[in-house]
Design a protein that fits this description.
About 85% of the residues lie in helices and about 0% in strands. It is an all-alpha fold. It has a single domain (about 5-280), classed as ABC transporter involved in vitamin B12 uptake, BtuC. It starts with 7 loop residues before the first helix and ends with a helix.
Length: about 280
């Protein structure tokens, strides 16, 4: 891997991977504890409409994707708050509508030359230095907002009723969280693509949740796992000439299933110990 770092595109890719891992570790932890995985998937796939919008009107990719994703996220948040029983249906519709809108707008763009696969599966190896600066600024803003509202987010995530009693503005905080998810999704799209974005947002936090005892620890371990997955996936893609985004998620998925096997083994050993103790007592 060290010899690959002689190339600027690999250094940029590694930097993008590290920044993405940190943001996904923080926001992904909030997604997992608030059970917002499906809603995040809707936001991720509706972002494709923003990509089509950007190409159709000749706007920068970030402007179109962030604007469309943020608006879609606010609609989904409003629906999920007012009618939780029907939220999954509306999210599913917007999920499909966003992707369809993006494809149609790209089709209508005269003389377009767009590599759709790079947006579906990511193109971390082609992230320019200018986008790294934008990602750094956006990531810093996200982290500062989470840090500023951390105590309220913590209470809301684990006990919404208690948060309301304490006077926490749960509804506004919920909209803020969904907005941060939308911005995070646009950042991650460049790394692993629309189809794989949810995996990077949920797999590290899910693994970390089982081995930590606080939200802060969960976020920290999630960030570390994300860095391991992105850097390891980059090495695998470089070593075997594979698609980088898919390699990152494949590595994360293998570790995910390994953690399930470890949990199952621990559970079996615990049962055996309990049976042995029961036999000794009787």
């Amino acid at each position: 891997m060290l010899d690959a770092l002689h190339y600027e595109f690999m250094r940029n890719a590694l930097a993008a991977g590290v920044m993405t891992s940190i943001i996904c570790g923080v926001i992904g932890s909030l997604i997992v504890v608030n059970r917002l995985v499906f809603l995040s998937g809707g936001i991720a796939h509706s972002a494709y409409g923003g990509i089509g919008l950007a190409f159709f009107f000749g706007l920068p990719y970030m402007v179109g994707a962030v604007t469309f994703s943020f608006c879609s996220a606010m609609v989904m948040a409003a629906v999920s708050i007012r009618s939780k029983q029907r939220a999954d249906t509306i999210i599913g519709v917007m999920w499909a509508l966003g992707m369809a809108t993006g494809i149609l707008l790209i089709d209508l763009t005269p003389g377009y030359n767009v590599d759709l696969i790079s947006y579906l599966f990511g193109s971390i190896l082609s992230v320019p230095r200018s986008d790294l600066a934008i990602m750094a600024v956006a990531g810093a803003v996200i982290l500062l907002l989470v840090l500023y509202f951390f105590n309220d987010l913590l209470v809301m995530s684990y006990d919404e009723e208690f948060a309301l009693v304490r006077g926490v503005p749960v509804r506004r905080l919920y909209y803020l969280l969904i907005g941060l998810v939308a911005v995070t999704v646009v950042m991650v799209v460049q790394v692993v693509g629309l189809i794989l974005v949810i995996a990077l947002l949920t797999i590290p936090p899910y693994i970390a949740e089982k081995y930590t005892r606080s939200l802060v620890q969960m976020m920290f371990v999630s960030c570390l796992l994300g860095i391991v997955f992105t850097s390891g996936g980059l090495w695998i893609s470089y070593r075997f000439d594979l698609t980088s985004g898919a390699a990152i998620i494949f590595l994360a998925g293998m570790v995910f299933f390994l953690s399930l096997l470890v949990d199952k083994g621990i559970a079996l050993n615990t049962r055996k110990e309990m049976r042995r103790s029961h036999q000794e007592l009787s």
